[in-house]
Every structure is written in C-alpha cells, then in structure tokens.
Amino acid sequence: xxxxxxxxxxxxxxxxxxxxxxxxxxxxxxxxxxxxxxxxxxxxxxxxxxxxxxxxxxxxxxxxxxxxxxxxxxxxxxxxxxxxxxxxxxxxxxxxxxxxxxxxxxxxxxxxxxxxxxxxxxxxxxxxxxxxxxxxxxxxxxxxxxxxxxxx
Length: 152
Description:
This protein is mainly beta. 13% of the residues lie in helices and 43% in strands.
C-alpha cells in the first residue's frame, strides 16, 4: 500500500477564546478557530488580503494547555491533521452536515507576555518559541510569496 501524508501547518491568530468540553469518558476537548491571511495582487495590481478561518480541535493534555494559555488574538503555530466529520442535521431530517477541522497534535504560542489578556509566551506541547513577537512577525513576513517571487 502506498504511503500518504495528512499534515497541516498553520501560523495565525486565534479568533475567539477556545470552547472547552468533556467527552463522556472524561477526555478534555478544546475547539477554537484560527485565522490565516494571505496577500496577493488582483488583476488591476492592487494588493488584496484574504482571510481563511480554520476549525481546530485538540484532545487530552493539549486541550488542557489550550484551556489554560490560549486566548482570542494570540498568534499560534499549529501542526495537525485534516479530518472531516459528518452527522445528521437535527433541524432538517435526512440532511447531512459536514465539518472539516484540523486535529491539533502540536502548537507553539508565538505571542509574548502582555500581548493578550492572559499573558501567553508559555510552553505548549513539546515546543517552546523563545523568539520575541517582533522576530516572529519578521519571520512570517519574510516567508510571504508575492507575484514578483514567481519566476514565470
């Protein structure tokens, strides 16, 4: 059988405070959204910005870390896998509802202390980012690709 890869890597800002729930088994679950933005030139040469919202979910210890440290507005580096769930719509019998989300398996808080109401800048998962927020913003800006970067 051929190997395959399902990995998502995102750097973006948390859209709202995470929603924390518990499964019947007692497992902690964190649901939250992350916004990523891209800049591009339209046909008239004007620079445009487009924001994409991603649904994220984390379980067990990582969900607890998210509960304790992740707040609206923080900048995060997230790694995970893309999955799609489906269920029957209770309001419209016979209709299926689909939700694509990223199951987080690692994250790094990129915002420093004082950049959110909760503080931030703490260890999350197995990684710790010691760069200052300004250095992180420079890194993110330096990785953006524009039309001028494409050789054709």
